[in-house]
Amino acid sequence: MRLARGITLIVAGVAAAALYAARAQGPAARDRREWRSYGGGPEQARYSSLKQINRSTVTRLAVAWTWDSGEEGGLQTNPIVVDGVLYTTTPKHRIVALDAATGALKWVFDSKVEGRGPNRGVTYWAGGGDGRIFAAGEHYVYALDARTGVPILSFGREGRIDLRADLGRVVDKQSVHLTTPGVMYRDLLIVGGRVGEGDAASPGYIRAYDARSGMLRWRFHTIPQPGDPGYETWSKNSWTVNGGANNWAGMAVDESRGIVYVPTGSAAPDFHGGDRAGDNLFANTLLALKADTGERIWHFQAVRHDIWDRDFPSPPTLVTVTHGGRRVDAVAQTTKHGYVFLFDRDKGTPLFPIEEREFPSSPVEGEVTARTQPIPTKPAPFARQTLTEDLLTRRTPEARAWALEQFRSFAGGSPFVPLRVGQDTIVFPGFDGGAEWGGSAFDPVSGVLYVNSNDLAWTGSLAPNETRPTGRSLYLKECAVCHRDDFEGTPPMIPSLAGIAARRSPQEMTAVVRKGAGRMPGFPNLSVDGVAAIVEYMRSGGSSSAAHGEEETRTPTSRYRFTGYKKFLDPDGYPATAPPWGTLNAINLNTGEYAWKVPLGEYPELAAKGVKDTGSENYGGPIVTAGGLVFIAATSFDQKFRAFDKDTGALLWETTLPLGGNATPATYEVNGRQFVVIPAGGGRSKSRSGGIYVAFALP
Predict the structure, then answer these.
(1) What is the reported pTM?
(2) Which domain CATH number covers 96?
(3) Which of 25, 398, 586, 600 is deepest in the core (most CB within 10 A)?
């Protein structure tokens, strides 16, 4: 049965319900002593009412327990705590339950499908006395008994559902992984997923499954099909061939209103849109959907026809603010390009004016960019927007001279400058934000939103796609977007492939290309010969370009390809821009003004020379508590975990973790004692990676 507004109703009898009249109960009204879901609660506010640990006591924090998974690979997980049990993941995607008071292991679930890449947490649901943990393992989602970790075989097929199904495309040719855990509404598990970013990416449909049976209940087409609103904003056949427009960052749920708020990513391929003409709804869009049916209520598209990978990077945050002398339930959404959008939850009306501003058109043949993009007038951006010579590094005279020479060879420097063929264009803030996946924290008492930000420049360019199917052409088309034409990548996030033949066997390389690893999606769409050709080309160090069988025919095939992510770093490996390179921001959403801004993170070797407060890249987010504290780790080089005064930004406490804490902490109470736990996974700098959980409490 087809409904208007671009959804397909799956199960007869699931009727559209009216929105609840009762207002959503804000985080301030709830006694949050546990951390029952990703982000702390369905509102994604990352707020706790606990205050045993406060401004006066935080300096006495000490390690209460640690648990080491014994695995390498890193952690981006926000653990959950329910009834004294902490549920979380390991770097290899095992699911574990720990005693939240002691860290003692209660159970472990191993799907035997080795996980690769980020797995940011699990989802808890209870119904009729049945407590379940929904957990991702590659392209599967498992339902586990919360008490034992044993799969519930009545869910899906033998305890799991396959996210590659229900997309309207050939199942075994899809690559879909649940990076961020799904959200619950009543008895529905609502999920998005991470998909590829090239020509043959899977579509990023939003789907809801019955929490008991695993049956698909509804699906929203983020790439509209004929008859759906927004179909005219794509190429005619985009719904059959294009991908992306996926929710990889997570969602927020207003349980009283029955609304799920869903931010989506960019359309694929990311950096050239010649084969997806138009604005490309519902990519780069904040969607408000009826949670029980998937019907669209309102939407806002932040970037039209995105060719900069400016997807929404984090879950929205449900807030209540004072505007025009009245209290307004709103939804706040941060962006990679450094802005906060604030909307009325019911109608999507912006609370601060949004201006349409004109930006340059693309010089690339076949590329038609949007004439204007929407920019909020308040709050001011939390990341710098325009790179000039004055903002280049002054760390040393040599570094500055190098940066000036490089900068003068680049195009761009201001927002939304399209990439060019054969010349690097500056993207500032870079491809990793601005805001990132860690999410924002909201204090319901003051109305302040806390968001951490990267503030580095990156560059990128386009090159013509080679049409003859060879190992070289396949590598350049599918792999160089991350690992670059020269195999150098962007370590440590995107590893170098130089000399890969000495480190990996052909069988290992084939498995990674087919299944993916780390941030890299798999390429199940490639033929056996196509994968073999790529592996041969990489093992030869780029010296071989011979064909190795014919690549499977796929459309669309972009005329141009992205040549790879490049950070603008000086010859010593530091950002070629002036500090701050990362910040923590406190924004009053009642007024749109900043309460404070401080650098976040530093480089230990520079700090030892007296170069402090530079800020650094940071991944993971903050939490805020009624004790007056903002806790955040996130920094990639100093391995610090910090507590700031939520009102002033003053640093009140810090400690060094065994590995970098590139994740979002959680806080909870067990037996009258408050704990703060942070996953320490490292791997973002030159340090080793691992999977250690560290919990702090008062002695």
Answers:
(1) 0.89
(2) 2.40.128.630
(3) 600
